[in-house]
């Protein structure tokens, strides 16, 4: 496992980040602990969770595991924003909710500090200055080392960066967006902002809920029973079967399977390796449910797709640009 600086910070993280969203939900605690042990054994030092994952259970599992580990060798990330109760102030990015949230996360994680504290999504109800000044205070207090954002639009991210710069507050170190071969729109605004401003990119759902895992292929008429995609269809999640069972997806999967055969790698390893080679990407977040999934994902590191393979994947996954991106691209190509 190689290590990369997180944005413009001096902190190094492993090129794969272990996502803990499944811990305590699909993955029992004993297996979750074994997965974290194996990840660290393989050289991983970066674990990402959130207060809202199973209403704090994921953080608690990570905390009980973390208690017996060399704390300073690990980079622990968590998030705040979504409801943690039914009260009117138990949600959002107000000073009140953030301060309550960080104290609760510290207790569940059984640690004195959080390496990376991220706002989980934009909050239209709270002034951005209130959120950013509170995050700055947390860094100054020592309870948080670095801050980041997730699920922002381009203008929201740039506004946050500009306000922090103007006020002399702690800047965002990274962005956690959805980014994968089935979600290339992240490249329209978010990746350019991150590259221009020096933010690291730690993509969530790099295998798009299993669509890029090798489990799906042309000719299928329904998702496997018990799969995340089947559940997504029932729950209305983004990775639902009805959203992706189309010719664009099948063409991309045809290319992934062909390159997997050429390289003797798995489809998931190909999809993750493509992401590892994209500009600005620091560490994709691998959200595994089982040890078998982890072992397969770990095989995405330590090698590289060649230029021809990258180009084929780029072409197969490309989506039509909407205005104004199509207009600008057509007039500035080659200039």
Describe what this molecule looks like in 3D.
The chain has an eight-stranded parallel sheet with strand order 9-8-7-6-5-4-3-10, covered by helices on one side. It has a two-stranded antiparallel ribbon with strand order 1-2. It is α/β, with parallel strands linked by helices. It is built from 13 helices and ten strands. The protein is globular. The two termini are 38 Å apart. A hairpin with a 6-residue loop joins strand 1 (3-5) and strand 2 (12-14). The longest helix has 17 residues, at 247-263. The chain has helices at residues 29-41, 57-66, 95-109, 128-141, 154-167, 190-197, 228-235, 241-244, 247-263, 267-276, 291-298, 307-317, 325-332; strands spanning 3-5, 12-14, 17-19, 46-48, 75-80, 114-119, 144-150, 172-176, 200-201, 285-286.
Second CATH tier, the architecture: Alpha-Beta Barrel
Q: Report the major sheet.
A: 8 strands, parallel
- Fourth-tier CATH superfamily name: NADP-dependent oxidoreductase domain
What is the CATH C level class, in words? Alpha Beta
Structural class: alpha/beta
């Amino acid at each position: 496992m190689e290590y990369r600086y997180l944005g413009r910070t001096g902190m190094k993280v492993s090129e794969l980040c272990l996502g803990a969203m499944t811990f305590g939900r699909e993955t029992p605690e004993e297996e979750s602990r074994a997965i974290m042990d194996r990840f660290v054994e393989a050289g991983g030092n970066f674990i990402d969770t959130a207060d809202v994952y199973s209403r704090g259970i994921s953080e608690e599992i990570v905390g009980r595991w973390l208690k017996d580990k060399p704390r300073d060798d690990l980079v622990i990330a968590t998030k705040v924003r979504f409801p943690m109760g039914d009260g009117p102030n138990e949600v959002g990015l107000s000073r009140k909710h953030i301060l309550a949230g960080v104290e609760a996360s510290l207790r569940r994680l059984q640690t004195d500090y959080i390496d990376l504290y991220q706002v989980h999504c934009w909050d239209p109800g709270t002034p951005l200055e209130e959120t950013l000044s509170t995050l700055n205070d947390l860094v100054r207090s020592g309870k948080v080392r670095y801050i980041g954002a997730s699920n922002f639009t381009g203008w929201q991210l740039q506004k946050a960066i500009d306000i922090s710069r103007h006020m002399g507050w702690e800047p965002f170190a990274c962005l956690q967006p959805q980014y994968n071969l089935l979600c290339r729109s992240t490249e329209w605004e978010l990746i350019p902002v991150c590259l221009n401003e020096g933010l690291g990119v730690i993509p969530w759902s790099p295998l798009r809920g299993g669509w890029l895992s090798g489990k799906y292929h042309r000719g299928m008429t329904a998702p496997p029973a018990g799969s995340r995609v089947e559940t997504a269809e029932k729950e209305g999640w983004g990775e639902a079967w009805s959203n992706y069972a189309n010719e664009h997806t099948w063409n991309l999967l045809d290319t992934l399977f062909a390159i997997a055969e050429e390289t003797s790698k798995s489809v998931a390893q190909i999809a993750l390796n493509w992401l590892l080679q994209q500009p600005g990407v620091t560490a994709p977040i691998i959200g595994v449910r089982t040890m078998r999934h982890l072992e397969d994902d770990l095989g995405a590191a330590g090698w590289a797709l060649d230029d021809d393979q990258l180009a084929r994947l780029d072409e197969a996954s490309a989506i039509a640009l909407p205005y104004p991106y199509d207009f600008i691209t057509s007039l500035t190509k080659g200039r």
